[in-house]
Amino acid sequence: MPQTLYRMNQHKLKENSQHTFRSGNHYLILLLTQGSFHIWLKEKKHLCLSSDMLLFKPKQLHTIYISNSLCTILSVSVPVQSLALLSDSTCDLCQKFQFSPHDTAIIHAEIESSMLIKHIASKLYSLKEETLRLGIELYEKSLFTTLLILFLRACVQSDQVYQLHQKKEFMLDEVFRYISHHLTEDLSFKALEKEFFVSGEHIAREFKKRTGMTLHSYILHSRIDLAKKYILQELPVRDVYHRCGFGSYNHFFKVFKKECGMTPMQYYQTVKKHSATFS
Fold first, then answer.
1. Helices 136-181, 189-196: inter-axial angle, 10-degree rounding
2. Is residue 108 within 8 Å of residue 161, measured between CB atoms?
3. Has residue 46 been placed in a domain?
4. CATH assignment of the domain containing 264
5. Which of 73, 145, 156 shows the shortest CA–CA distance to 113?
C-alpha cells in the first residue's frame, strides 16, 4: 500500500504533561486507547475518556493535557487525496469528512462502536509486523476503508445525540421566553403542549433538571413579581390578580402571602414606607 494513503503513530504520554497535535494538510483522527486527558475547545475545558475520539480538520492545532495517569493515543493522519481515492459512487468520503461534529473536535461515541474502531486501528498499526504478506495491501486497504466508514458513522451518531441535547436546551430557552410574554394567559401543561408540540410532563421534567425548581413554582414566582409591579403602581389589588393570570383573588392572596411573607397591602405599605425613609 502506498505510504501516502495514511500515516499512523502511537503516542505514549506521561502524566502531568501536555502534547500538541498538528493536522497539517491532512485530517487527523485521535483514538484514545489508555488513560484520559483534557482539551480546551472554544474556551471550554473538555474531559476525554476511553470511548471518546477526536477529529481535527486540515491546518488545525490543538494541545491536550494529561493529568494523573499515563495516556496512550493512536493518531491517524489522512490525506485528502486518500479520501478521494477510497470514495465511490455511494459515498464521497471527501464530502463526508468536511462534516465537523457539533462544531467541536470531540466525538462522544458509543462504547461498542469506539471499541471496534480502536480494534481495527490497532490491527492496522500492527500490520507492519505481519509475516504473512499474502494479499496484505488489499487487506490493509479494506481495514483502513472500514475504519474511515465506522468513524464517520460514529460522528453522525454523536452529532444526532448532540443536536437532540441542543434542541432540548433551545426548547427550554423558548419556554422561558414564552412564559415571560404570556404570564396573564393559560400556562397549563396542555397549553404548553400545544405551543411546543412536546408533552407538558417532559417540559416540566427538563425544566426541573435544568433549573432545580419546578415549572409550576417558576410560573407562580414570575406572576408574583409582576403583581408586585402592579401593586406599586397603585392598581386595585382585586384587579391585579386577573392581570397576573391568577384564577381567583383567594388563590392570588394565598400565593402572594406564601411567597412574600405578607399580604399584598402590607407589601405596598412596607415598600412605600421604605422608599419614603430614603427619599
1. 130
2. yes
3. yes
4. 1.10.10.60
5. 156
